[in-house]
């Protein structure tokens, strides 16, 4: 896995401005605790970084493209879902105010990889359905009920409560 890490001295050496264009791969173990996404493939991260030496902040414009592997909401089959995310992230080399939306840099090392992953996870849709998904209408002991169909379930009275019906007469 390629990490997008930049040291403050390296950034200053490049006059506070740098460009990057990297392919990232995320190991499948990262997605074991998430049930809404099964993986990522072909993730390309590009952008620019600009250091503001007065504020000791790094402004990074990110463009993240790739494909999410998501489970179909009906069949749980894998679906390729392309994404294209643009984001501007701010990194502070000093302790930022807790009310600011700023990433604090530890040990003068800016790591973009967790920020990229966070941006991707924010874009995961609630549910996706495969275009040609065929689901069964019924099975052994179950069936899908349609809101329009009137079934005898409403008329059914639990035998344990049948005596109560006579009580209210």
Please tell me about this protein's structure.
This protein is mainly β and 169 residues long. It contains three helices and nine strands. It starts with a strand and ends with a helix.
Which key phrases capture this entry?
single chain; 169 residues; five-stranded mixed β-sheet; two-stranded antiparallel sheet; mainly beta; 3 helices
Question: What best-fitting shape do the alpha-carbon axes yield?
Answer: elongated
Secondary structure class reads mainly beta
Helix content bin: 10-25%
Instruction: Output mean pLDDT.
Output: 86
Number of helices: 3
Strand content: 35-45%
Q: Which regions have little confidence, pLDDT < 50, spanning 5+ residues?
A: none
Largest sheet descriptor: 5 strands, mixed
What's the total number of strands? 9
Please tell me how large the radius of gyration is. Answer: 26 Å
